Amino acid sequence: MKILEGKTALITGASKGIGRSIALTYAEEGANVAFTYLSSVEKGEALVKELEAFGVKAKGYRSDASDFAAAQELIDGVVADFGSLDILINNAGITRDNLLMRMTEESWDEIMQVNLKSCFNTVKASARTFMKQRSGSIINMSSVVGVKGNPGQSNYAASKAGIIGFTKSVALELGSRGIRCNAVAPGFIETEMTEVLDEKVVQSWRDAIPLKRGGQPEDVANACVFLGSDMSAYITGQTIQVDGGMLT
């Protein structure tokens, strides 16, 4: 029996990068996968086909998790289409990097809306479903930047630190109903975004990591499999750093 067989997971922002890897790994482990995307319909449709190849049910939803009303419609739609919801992974996120003195109010607000408020939206919208079934695993994507800060990313760092605080509070509020809530904090993960960076810069980052390599999206996905599965049944309110020892 596969580790997530029979479970239904919703992953926000899954059309590329880490989110896409989580979706594929979940399907490989037997989970039915609902996911959201915002821009590329073609990528969404292609991912559905890849997920279905594992013999699971899959559906993509074009939805903006930062929109409160849209998040409720999304959760209602997933429960109606799949018949259940067992795992919620809040992965949707953006960056708008700049030094504080140059950062605009719009850049700050957009980051908070997409990265932090989206977690509130989907968790609040799904809480009633989880409470009714007295079970559920919520996984919120934070970052090592939310733990240690980073120059030029005060908005992003604040949003990711906020996710950690939100995660701990949700764990305390919903734990008595059998609902777990944890955060994952990736470090330097090599994705499409890092491919455009200067190789010397990338190598200097790798050299500073105890494991001497950047992480792969699958490394984050595997942590999410653990947290979504019954193997982590006694783990809640925690932040799992997937960073190769970067913050050790």
Question: What's the short version?
Answer:
The chain has 248 residues and is α/β, with parallel strands linked by helices. The chain has eight helices and seven strands, in the order βαβαβαβαβααβααβ. It has a single domain (8-242), classed as NAD(P)-binding Rossmann-like Domain (Rossmann fold), CATH 3.40.50.720.
Average pLDDT works out at 96
Radius of gyration: 17 Å
What quaternary form is this? Answer: single chain
Give the count of helical stretches. 8
Number of domains: 1
CATH-assigned fold name? Rossmann fold
The strand count comes to: 7
Widest sheet: strand ordering: 3-2-1-4-5-6-7
Largest sheet report: 7 strands, parallel
| CATH homologous superfamily caption | NAD(P)-binding Rossmann-like Domain
Secondary-structure element order, N to C: EHEHEHEHEHHEHHE
Helix percentage: 40-55%
CATH architecture: 3-Layer(aba) Sandwich
Beta-strand percentage range: 5-15%
Spans of 5+ residues with little confidence (pLDDT < 50)?
none
Using the coordinates above, name the CATH class: Alpha Beta
